[in-house]
Structure formats: structure tokens, C-alpha cells
Amino acid sequence: MAGFVLIHGSWHGGWCFDKLATILEARGHTVVAPTLPGMGGTEAEMAAVTLEDWGEFAAQHCRDLKARLGGAPVVLGGHSRGGLVVSTAAERHPDAMDSLAYICAMMLPAGLSRVEFKEIVGPNAPFEAIIQPLYGSVATVIDPLSDAGAVFAQLSPPEDVAAVLPRLLAEPSQPRRQKIMVTPERWGSKPRTYVECTQDRTIPIDSQRKMIAMSPGAQVITLEADHSPYLSAPEALADALEAAI
């Protein structure tokens, strides 16, 4: 059996993986799904957040879980923006985890930021329409009056979507602006699995496949799911994560 450290995406928290964690734990695995520091914090707390800090946080959770499991394999997985954290953690501490999983996530090559990748792939008007700035450029929030469910989780059970949307948090902006720093010797030494979601309206499938092409070498698993496969296809996503061990 294995351990999974799962890093949530923008505006979410570790709680978004609850249904997935239940499935993986029923299969005998151990799941840790923390909420990243600074999420939903004060202006000062969110302004202080860096991608490096989040990478250290994720790597420490991997180390702690590996120690708990007595050397069993540990997979570090990230959803959406969480992919930036996965890459940063693996580059800084490749010894802390055994493999990486990107769940319709940002898997960027060295020297590129999330903001710069957005410029490459062009606008996504429905997604951009649900985002509002907070504290100037320090953070963003999801407009509570918008139809965010139609962007994040249009294929997911409505009751699950209704439960998630009120829990969304303010998202620090700085990590999206920072360039990813990865090398073949460190990040590239870890086996990677990319779980692409063909019905994703947040990071469309064309954007996902562009990232896969820009960072070749990942095992690719395709799900007919929206941007929230932990809600719309949790069993299939659990299968995909097991394949990443």
C-alpha cells in the first residue's frame, strides 16, 4: 500500500479531496490532504506567501508520511494550481517523495509562470468572469454570485458542488506569478503521471495537452471528467493515482 499527499488547487482547501480520500483509504492507502498556509488569510498573510514556502510545506508532509509508513512509497499529487506546488517541492526535495501526480494541473517547464502560460494559451472568458481581485493584486476570490459550478464542476453531483462552493477561500496571487524552476536531475528524476480531464472548463484539455508536450515524459491517463474529478469521477481518479505509485 502507499501514501498520498494531495495538494489542492486555487481557492480550495484540503477538504476538496474528502470523497477521494475515503476511496483510497478503503483500498488500504493513507491520504494526507492539507490546506496550504495563507489560504483565506489576512492581506499581510497572503502577501507573504511564496511558491517556495508552499513547496517546503508539501515536501515536509511527504517526509512525515514516509516516516509514518516505514518506507512505503509516497505519491505527491496536485490538482490545478497545486501542480506548481508539486513541481517546486520535487525540485527542492526529490528525496521526500517517490513519484508525482498532476490532476488536470499546472505542469510547467522551467522558466515559465502560470501567468505567462495563460498568455501563451490565450483567454478563457467563462473562467476569468468568475474571479474577482482582493486587496488590489494581493489575492483573488471567486464571485459568490457567479455560476462557478458551471466552470469548476459541471459534471459533478449538484449536491457536492453546492457543498463546496461556499467553502472557497481567498487565493494568494504571488505563486501564480513566480517562474517554475525545475531541472532534469531533481524534479525530472521522479516518475510523473498526468491525469488529463477532457471536459475541463477551467484548464481546457488543449491547455493540458500543451503542458504535457512542453514537459514530456509523463504517463498520461485520460478521464472523461470536469475540473473537479475528485467529485465527478472519484473512483476513476483513485485508479489513476494508484497507477502513479
TrEMBL record:
GO function terms (MF aspect): hydrolase activity
Record keywords: Hydrolase
Q: Which residues form the signal peptide?
A: none
What residues does the AB hydrolase-1 domain cover?
4-240
InterPro entries the record matches? AB_hydrolase_1, AB_hydrolase_fold, MES/HNL
Put simply, this protein is called Alpha/beta fold hydrolase
Question: Which species is listed as the source?
Answer: Novosphingobium pokkalii
